[in-house]
């Protein structure tokens, strides 16, 4: 770690950047990030790109390599037309969860902006990617680029062999089901024969030890149950119910060719790779914002950047963490940067200068005087939902003036259920956390059964929560895609999540 | 840390995606392009074009929960004076699906708006049109030269050295002249050294020494690479054939031609010009306007300056024939002519017109199009104009010309397409 040196030379002056300055800034930031904040990052790779390349990256979900599909071209056309009209600015950076961690920075950025971007992406996001439990569990940072390379080649090859139309059909369908193509829980491991035998033996022993002749006299189950058993046995063999639609189709769809299954697998793997990002928006951005804010201030304190650069950085920072109120025309939901940054800063405050209230709410770490260790722990072991549930403090709720609205479809008005006061804190916090729960955000779709004896109809259930049904038009279109992959008719039913009662049956979709 | 400058990477990484997108939406885009072209000033067509297409085939659906209904809970920021138990009126329901331009799914009926590049636009715009007899002439006198490989030569610059050929020559020469291989010499030397060491068989030793001497001399005499081996790649400058065309715009500007008629004619000429520029590297335009006398003018004068006088069509044709003779030899140029007129002609001029047309104009032309422009709202009485009847006779004789009537803007493009449609429509009327 470098010693604070009041006479340290400025790393740069003025707005122009060059590769030498980038390197120097990166090195100094690395010292601060690793030495003072204790961050643990993948090696960095910073790539300078143009606006057009940024648009490119936008359209292919931010990845540097991606297979070809018309939808990316469509997004590019839409983004481009908005950008050209000046209706949308471009992000300053895009960062990829890979090892080395690739950050794209725009050539238009000033040197102060590049400093901000390096601190934000190359250290903030980078640390989060490397340490957060979800990312560790679900993504393979070292392998992703190779995998994408493979995927791109595979799909190109498939297009050559089977034609654009055929590949496009599979990809369209797979994309429609992409958000339901992830494993939400770690998979069961394949059975281990030795382990199975041991368990079998244990059971047998237990049975013999507890043998009671009395059970023989109990009347046998009614004949009606037999059928139930058959159904459950069949479902067990098919691995049903299954909520990973793409996985199910890949393994069990009767009419797909091997290359089609491989394409489903590719889309599924990419969906799985992005699955953690959906669940950690607030934390990921909060972490990166907290890191760049701290580092920018440290750089200034240590005399590495001048007042002008700091002000420019703070100006951008302030824009990013701006949170308009619900009645502001600019309001469009809670800003993950604002919420994340406010919470991280609050954790820092609770660790260093806690109030009595904080001591009551956060006895574990209030006043422990080690804010960065506390933050690192939070970054590593939580996702948005659990993070908010654990760490959202009354102080933040008061600061953002959060309140809880309850909306019943039949009622004319919405009700304010609770506000940022003593009685409401827990309720507000719980509700907010719930709204970040991916399980509550996305429709719960499951493959329920297959009519193997009849017309091989696939029966899909949507488990309805809070009486919110599926968007009908979207569902109809998606169902068609599902039917195309399955190869036989598909039926979608909406069932009550609690009672299992059938609430609604959609029109059957036939493959075309 | 690694810094990589990607700015110089090839552009258009997403081109393949864009092509896939255009292919998928081809039908809708084509329709939109056609519509855009009928409603818009022709000059705008030449630029890139923003178009809107329906979402039909471009939806990216997924299972998602409806935006309405059910029980919902929100946490929102910015509370000012609410306390728990207060009620807030619901915001008015939005009609239809939300999501304006470029929303991720573009859900609902909204059109999808984006910009086509000039080339993409023109490709679709002029799709399945073709120029009759286009490849008839390629120009010999060309605008640029290009170098192409032309065998090998014994002289040349070192950068053009053909290494493979040179080494092959060298090898065959060395074999032919029995140049000793380095390995053979090394073996001899080793044998001599061994004999010297052991000291027996001095006879053999001296024999070997003589042999070594001869081999060494031979190796010196036969060089490894000789100037006769060296070959260079030869490049030859060849003229790049450039197809070129000239387009004659003939227009009647007499008093009977209204602004509306001129506008129609202009639109037709613009289309023809665009079309020609897509097909030929080099296109010249000659504007000839006529009343009772014809004159070559510039574009501005052609379309906008007014003139009064009678109508003698043959003057324009004579002027054109003169210009062709003077500047555009039919051997070198692809000649296209488009004539616009309201159909008036001095009756006595008709025979002269026919004669000129059949004898000097049509033989020189690739294609001659006659557009008869009419007033927008005036009903034609079914009576054919002088010029129309005259040309009809020529056409009946199987000439390489076409004629059409146009009354309003919307007809221009269909007529143009009809004239240049691929299934050679130009003989029919």
From TrEMBL, chain A:
> Which superkingdom, per the lineage?
Bacteria
Q: Quote any Pfam family the record assigns.
A: SpoVR
Q: What is this protein called?
A: SpoVR family protein
| InterPro entries associated with the record | Spore_V_R (IPR007390), SpoVR-like_C (IPR057008), SpoVR_N (IPR056174), Ycgb-like (IPR057270)
Q: Where is the signal peptide?
A: none
SpoVR-like C-terminal domain: from which residue to which, for each copy? 444-496
| Span of domain SpoVR protein-like N-terminal | 16-439
Automatic annotation (TrEMBL), chain B:
Q: Name one Pfam family in it.
A: DUF444
TM region positions: none
The biased composition feature labelled Gly residues covers 97-106
Lineage, top-rank taxon, reads Bacteria
Q: Which InterPro entries match?
A: UPF0229 (IPR006698), vWFA_dom_sf (IPR036465)
Region described as Disordered: spans on this chain: 34-56, 69-110
UniProt record similarity statement: Belongs to the UPF0229 family.
Q: What HAMAP family does this protein's entry cite?
A: UPF0229 (MF_01232)
Official protein name in the record: UPF0229 protein KEC16_18215
Q: Which organism is it from?
A: Magnetospirillum sulfuroxidans
